[in-house]
Write a structure and sequence with these properties.
It is built from seven helices and seven strands, in the order βαααβαβαββββαα. It has about 160 residues and is of the alpha/beta class. The chain has a seven-stranded mixed β-sheet. A hairpin with a 2-residue loop joins β6 and β7 (about 130-135).
Length: about 160
């Protein structure tokens, strides 16, 4: 398990706060990713490093059903999004593109931006500051989808 830095956000974080609608007109996810969380932390894209984590509260990813919201996080190298709960469409879009989204009810209230975390998808546990937090353990078929880079890649692998 690799260690990554936590970037913590609030409850009811909507997809427009992840990537604002005006940037959806840009031609690629690579062009969009530099605007991730622009209204909340304009420096976010320069601070996050591949392998870091986004942590949120309740209802992470609510709002419009834009696939670009999990897409820009994955493009920036976010290893996983860990939250108390997710909006259903954000959760499905994230899995479809190969971004792990993990429900961990206790962790968000106990951590801050800058803390370091280890996350084991297979064990269903997050470790921060010597503490362990139980998380949703993804079923094997979902881990397979994530390992293959998302739903389409997984389906193509089966053909």
């Amino acid at each position: 398990m690799a260690v990554g830095k936590i970037f913590k956000f609030h409850n009811d974080l909507d997809t427009d706060q992840i990537i604002a609608s005006q940037y959806l007109l840009l031609p690629t996810i690579e062009d969009m990713k530099i605007h991730t969380f622009e209204s909340l932390d304009p420096q976010f894209p320069s601070k996050i490093k591949p392998g870091d984590y986004v942590v949120g509260g309740e209802n992470f990813g609510c709002g419009s059903s834009r696939e670009q919201a999990p897409g820009v996080l994955k493009a920036l190298g976010v290893k996983a999004v860990v939250a108390k709960s997710f909006a259903r469409i954000f959760y499905r879009n994230a899995i479809n593109i190969g971004l792990p989204v993990i429900v961990c009810r206790e962790l968000p209230d106990q951590v801050e931006t800058g803390d370091e975390m280890e996350l084991s998808l297979s064990e269903g546990v997050a470790r921060v500051g010597g503490e362990e937090y139980p998380c949703t353990r993804l079923p094997e078929y979902m881990q397979k989808i994530l390992n293959q880079g998302g739903l389409i890649a997984s389906l193509n692998e089966e053909v």
